[in-house]
């Protein structure tokens, strides 16, 4: 009932469909099928989604989970039938808290449980204290970036530096400054990486909804943490070998 109310008010993301129908879909993507070094977005984020399904569906008697039907587009998947995906329990000392605790309980201990369960969905439960020390949008950005670095083996130090420079420089820029950015060229791999990152934000939103909102949803919105032109600029600077001082604009 709560998931339905939040769904109607656009306060959660995909949770009601998973709970009511055991189904989730993402039938569009922006990725380069010729770039075989970067897996399809659907595959990159599947391990995180499996943990989220586990949090939501809780194992039945005997430890078996219901399967989730995924309609996720990626190169080679004709989408003629859903893939049946098994939930996977995240690694949390003492096991995963139940939904009644995550969604309804109050108090600092529960808030910590919500945050640690969220991090466990992305294999980051050991980074709790470091991430909590950051501003919420930056912490969420770092969660996603750390997860990507674990899942996509082709990401380089230059890619990492470009992403970090993006989040550190974005806050100080107005919408007019971002709109006025001039790019001599556009790098298709940077477009691909940007699309992968923004699609990852939807996975963060889903985990946030499932775990009882350890973050405000506003803090996970794309415009809080990403700008395509600024990322292009930082990506090109980083891959040209610019100094860190120039990359961070002296900050």
TrEMBL record:
Keywords: Receptor
Residue ranges that the Swiss-Prot or TrEMBL entry lists as coiled coil: none
Protein's name according to its UniProt entry: Constitutive coactivator of peroxisome proliferator-activated receptor gamma
UniProt keyword Protein biosynthesis, yes or no: no
A Gene Ontology BP annotation from the UniProt entry: peroxisome proliferator activated receptor signaling pathway
Entry GO terms, CC: nucleus
Superkingdom per UniProt: Eukaryota
